[in-house]
Amino acid sequence: MKLSMxxxxxxxxxxSVLAACVSKDEHxxxxxxxxxxxxxxxxxxxxxxxxRLALGTSKTDGDKLAKDLEASxxxxxxxxxxxxxxxxxxxxxxxxxxxxxxxxxxxxxxxxGLRGSVDQMKxxxxxxxxxxxxxxxxxxxxxSLLQRFKSLxxxxxxxxxxxxxxxxVSLGAEILFPNASAALSPEGRKTIVDVAKILATVERKYxxxxxxxxxxxxxxxxxxxxxxxxxxxITVVETMIESGVRPDRVSAASFSESRPVQKNDSIDGxxxxxxxxxxxxxxxxxxxxFDELQKLDGK
Length: 299
Fold this sequence. Notes:
The protein is of the alpha+beta class.
């Protein structure tokens, strides 16, 4: 651009010189060539300016692209950070999930154990309630017998007591038998009949036990107190059966002098030891562990 401006003032002079040195035709050719050269110069100048402008635009676009690339890189870094945070959160969630699974498994196990404990407690409670009902039934039965035997108790004919957890109807031998005899007296027979009629209404088993003092007896019929106690127990059993007690619910036993209730060093003590006891046998099926005992029986 600057070159064309410097050459313009010199062109007429240059043409004059050239005109003086060459012919008209040559002059015309030279002029044409110069015009063409000037046109080419101007065209090249325009192209150069256009290129310069294009370069400026390209630089601007390049700067913009660089900024965009920097922004993209920054965003990529941020997204990576966010992705890393998400991965950490996912890992934490996985750990929490595994912990919840373990807690659930433990809870299920504890629940099963608790259910087992509850079942055991229910069984234990049921067993206790059953025993309590049975105890209440025995107490009610004992009170009922006391009421039924009230008149005989009041006149001193018998006593109702608890011995080794069993109900016992105790009758003095002097009321029932003559001395050294196993035959019931009329009063003794009436007493046994009255007692038997009451016991026949109770669905229980009975054992009639004969007891003596420690004074020995040696007769042909009774070589010792064992035979005397056994004979008296058998006589009572037979009378009870005659009075309505089922034979399969009554038995006889002799304890001779082996179970005194008082010392034998006095008349009253020996009198108390000479007795007949009707033991109301417990129902073994109502006792704890009866089912296990049946299994051990092998039947």
